[in-house]
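Please decode residue identities from the backbone states below.
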């Protein structure tokens, strides 16, 4: 079975070109925001910052064109019923990280797509 390459639309490329990773606030900025949202109490800001880091750890990978192309390629490969491309080092490469999430998250993605979009995707990328 031939692996079909995903071709992003001009609109997607334009949208992906504007993606920007979030920057971690300084300790002072974080303390001030924490204090404001917690009734003027500064205690606990360190755990809040830890949570921020955990939730934003892969922003540098996700907010890239390569991630989004990999995400869609993973979805296309899953649609075609192909075996996934081995991604041993996917935490360091935006394309591989996107591919991993696209392939493994295909079922939930597919159930959220409307019928017209599904038909178009099948027509364009399915091997059947």
């Amino acid at each position: 079975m031939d692996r079909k390459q995903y071709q992003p639309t001009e609109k997607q490329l334009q949208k992906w070109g504007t993606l920007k990773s979030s920057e971690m606030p300084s300790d002072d900025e974080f303390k001030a925001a924490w204090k404001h949202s917690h009734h003027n109490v500064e205690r606990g800001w360190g755990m809040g910052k830890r949570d921020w880091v955990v939730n934003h750890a892969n922003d540098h990978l996700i907010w890239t064109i390569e991630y989004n192309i990999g995400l869609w390629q993973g979805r296309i490969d899953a649609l075609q019923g192909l075996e996934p491309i081995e991604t041993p080092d996917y935490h360091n490469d935006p394309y591989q990280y996107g591919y991993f999430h696209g392939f493994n998250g295909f079922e939930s993605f597919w159930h959220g797509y409307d019928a017209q979009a599904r038909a178009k995707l099948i027509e364009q990328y399915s091997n059947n």
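Observation: Residues 27-57 form one domain.
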